[in-house]
Each structure stands twice: as C-alpha cells, then as structure tokens.
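Team,

Forwarding the record for the chain on the shared tracking sheet. I've put the sequence and predicted structure together so nobody has to dig through attachments.
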Amino acid sequence: MAGQVVNLAGLMLVVVSIPAFLLYETWSEQDAMRRAWDIAGPACPVVETSPVVFGAKGPKTFEYGAVRFDRRYGHASCVAPPVRGIVSEQVYRVCQFSAPSALAVTTEGRTITYRPGTARRATVTVRDGQVSCVVGGWFAG
C-alpha cells in the first residue's frame, strides 16, 4: 500500500511539473527576446520630414502592427515582444534596420523622421504609442 502511494505521488509530481516547465520555458523565451531586442545606443537625430530625405526613388515602406515604417535603404527585421508576464496579450514593436540612412515612423496619426546616418544600423521601438530610435543593433540584413 505504501508503495502505491509513493508511485501515485510520483506520478502526480510529474503531471504537475509538465505545465510548470512549459510556463517557465515560454517565460524564458519571451524574456530572452525582450533582452535581445533591447538595444542601447545614442538617440537617432530627428529631422524635418521632407521628400528629399528619401531621395528620388522615395521610401521603402511597410506596416507592422498599426505602425508604418519608411526607410531609404537597407533591410528590416521586426518582432513584437510581450510587454510583461507569461501570458501577456499586450505587445510592443521593435524593428532593426541594417543601414536605413533615413527612417520615418508613423503611429497614431503622427510621423517622426530620423536620420541615423549612412551605413549605420538603427533600432526603433514603439511602446504605448511612444516612438524611440537608437543608432545601433545587431541585424545585418
């Protein structure tokens, strides 16, 4: 009888530990994503929006979530990390650009134009409607 109780307790421990492990694994992956995409660097210079900024061909444009991104050159890579918690439905947007020269970010009806510089990487974060841009990142395109 005591052996059956020990076996049953061991089985229950395994059954309970599987969801706990899956929750930890999900949290760990989300935390790693937030850390990998949290880029530090000097702020991108803000410039006046002008057609000249993007050259004669105009910008390369894409939308990610409810945010529009315009860039002059290069490639982009974006993610939507969860704000916090294990099962948070709230996300924010982060995009890295390989060598944009100029960037315009439009969200909630307003546009901010940045000039990180030629052949310089840039990372744009849009969180709670607030846009920030830093010169730097690891995405090479």
